[in-house]
Amino acid sequence: MDNKKELFPVTDENGNTLGCISRGDAHNGCKVLHPVVHLHVFNSKGELYLQKRPEWKDVQPGKWDTATGGHVAYGESVSRALEREVEEEIGITGIKAEYLGRYVFESNIERELVYVFRTIYDGVINPSAEELDGGRFWSKEDIAACIGKGVFTPNFEGEYQRFFV
C-alpha cells in the first residue's frame, strides 16, 4: 500500500523546489506540481519492457506502464530517485540511463513534472512482487495495437508517442 504521508517536493516547471507535500495531498486533486522519474528499458531487439501496475495502486491500477516510474522524495535528487526506483521496481543496478527530457503531465487527480530516461538492457529483470504485478517486453507492433484501448496508462501512451514514435 502506498504511504500517503510520504513527502514529495513541490516544484515549478523548471524543477526548482518550492516546498513539500504529502503523497495523499499531492494525489487528492489539488494539482500541485511534483517530480517523478520514468525509465524506458529497451532490449537490443528494440522491444520495450513494461510493468503491470498492481490493483492496489492509488493511480492507474491494473494498467501497463513505463518499466520504472516513481516519485522523487523530498530532499532527493532526480538521479538518486531514478537509481532507487529502478532497483526497487525491477531489480537493476548500475544502469547507464540517457536523459530524454521532461514535461508536465496532468490527470484528474495530480500534476507531475516527469523526467524521462531510457536505457538498453539485455540482462535479467526481476520485477518486485511488492511493487508490481510483473512485467514483460513488448514489440512496437504490440504497443501500437493497444494504444487508445485502455491497456496502458494515459501518461505512458503520451510519453511513448512523444519520445519514441
Give an account of the 3D structure.
It is a single chain. With 165 residues, this protein is an alpha+beta fold. Helix content is 21%, strand content 34%. It contains 4 helices and 9 strands. The protein has helices at 23-26, 78-90, 140-146, 154-164, and strands at residues 7-11, 17-22, 33-42, 48-52, 64-66, 68-71, 98-106, 111-120, 135-138. Strands 3, 4, 5, 6, 7, 8 and 9 form a 7-stranded mixed β-sheet that branches. Strands 1-2 form a two-stranded antiparallel sheet. Strand 1 and strand 2 form a beta hairpin. The longest helix has 13 residues, at 78-90. The radius of gyration is 15 Å and the shape is globular. The termini are far apart. 30% of the residues are buried. The model has no long low-confidence stretch (mean pLDDT 94).
Q: Estimate the global geometry from the Cα principal axes.
A: globular
Class of secondary structure makeup: alpha+beta
Order of helices and strands: EEHEEEEHEEEHH
The largest sheet is: 7 strands, mixed
Q: State the end-to-end CA separation.
A: 34 Å
Query: Which spans of ≥5 residues are poorly predicted at pLDDT below 50?
Result: none
Helix content: 10-25%
- Please state the CA-atom Rg, rounded to the nearest Å: 15 Å
